[in-house]
Amino acid sequence: MQKPGSAPLARQTMAFVLAGGRGSRLMELTDRRAKPAVYFGGKSRIIDFALSNALNSGIRRIGVATQYKAHSLIRHLQRGWNFFRPERNEIFDIFPASQRVSEELWYLGTADAVYQNLDILKDYDSEYFVVLAGDHIYKMDYEDMLKQHVEAKADVTIGCLEVPRMEATGFGVMHVDTEDRVISFIEKPKDPPAMPGEPDKALASMGIYVFNTKFLMDELRRDAEDPNSSHDFGKDIIPHIVKHGKAVAHHFETSCVRSRAESISYWRDVGTVDAYWEANIDLTSVVPDLDLYDRDWPIWTYGEVTPPAKFVHNEENRRGYALSSLVSGGCIVSGASLNRALLFTGVRCNSYSHVESSVVLPYAEIGRSARLRNVVVDSRVQIPEGLVVGEDPDFDARRFRRTENGICLITQPMIDALKG
């Protein structure tokens, strides 16, 4: 082990990504896959952002804990994240819930997901341990957070977002002093405490935690023996450290990675159909809030081998074209029109169809003369010829999952029900 200060702290760190959650607010999008495995941005999965942040920060020991309907996620990780080399002291491990501690127990909470694998994790011999949520979209350099953790001699350092105070009611909220030491941690408060000197803002937890590894292991063992604990970082581990140790808040603004094209510190929880649609559609803007073209901080993913996207036909009312859209490899736009659309890999849009303000997941097919507006189409869905969605709200709501903001989620079982 290198001495602290002789190498980047990230090289002495293990990142552990919690990726077992369903994400039920995404409705049918997570019927067959966990939330971290949901597609995002044309070719990526949501989990790729946390993993890419770790890799770009210099962390070369990474573990991913999976649980809910993990096949799609595990397959993606095996295909897209299999380039780590043990002979270079690099590790990439997947930790499915495998009842290692008890034959009757799956992961009981986020802290238990780490605790059940302590016998493996201790062999990685990492000085520091970063716990990450695998279901948010953002770019962040964890090295900066590690430096603050070491300099502050903290027991835990908590990644925090500055948000309007009354919008923090759905988060765990930090009440901090003027030196960013956490005085109290409150889960989803009705009246969130304000930041010092910022009465209209609050510090919300990002679900990102930095620990010294030995300290964390001791805390997890203590928590595992507590019959009253739910074995969760946000509900149990962090409040206990705030009360009995030293917890420090790390401001996302200080370590957020921004390209020249990005004007804000971008972080999104795409946990609802509305938020998911909005974040994807924003990428079709001339200058989106999130820059996926930043070569200095790439978002790594499974690079599926596909032919280029193709646009064909140039006849009146049967012209293949796209305006303000993202079209991924393997797509064929055959005499169809796209406007503010995001097409994932292998989508086919047939003649006379029109797709507007819509997100279409991989290998879906849009039938002839279909008109889709403000929709999310799940992967491999076969949109029938002439289907119209987005023009009659009441009719849409009877056939598909329609949100309060008017976004329709379309899955294959919903299409099959139309035929019945």
Automatic annotation (TrEMBL):
Pathways involved: Glycan biosynthesis; glycogen biosynthesis
Top-level taxon: Bacteria
Keyword flag Nucleotidyltransferase: yes
Gene Ontology molecular function: ATP binding; glucose-1-phosphate adenylyltransferase activity
Entry EC no(s): 2.7.7.27
Record-annotated Glucose-1-phosphate adenylyltransferase/Bifunctional protein GlmU-like C-terminal hexapeptide domain positions: 307-410
Could play a key role in the communication between the regulatory and the substrate sites, annotated site positions: Q67, W106
Annotated residues for binding of alpha-D-glucose 1-phosphate: Y107, G172, E187, K188, S205
Assigned keywords, A-Z: ATP-binding, Carbohydrate metabolism, Glycogen biosynthesis, Glycogen metabolism, Nucleotide-binding, Nucleotidyltransferase, Transferase
Pfam families with a match to the protein in the record: Hexapep_GlmU (PF24894), NTP_transferase (PF00483)
NCBIfam families, per database record: glgC, PRK00725.1, PRK00844.1
Function: Involved in the biosynthesis of ADP-glucose, a building block required for the elongation reactions to produce glycogen. Catalyzes the reaction between ATP and alpha-D-glucose 1-phosphate (G1P) to produce pyrophosphate and ADP-Glc.
Similarity remark: Belongs to the bacterial/plant glucose-1-phosphate adenylyltransferase family.
Name of the protein in its database record: Glucose-1-phosphate adenylyltransferase
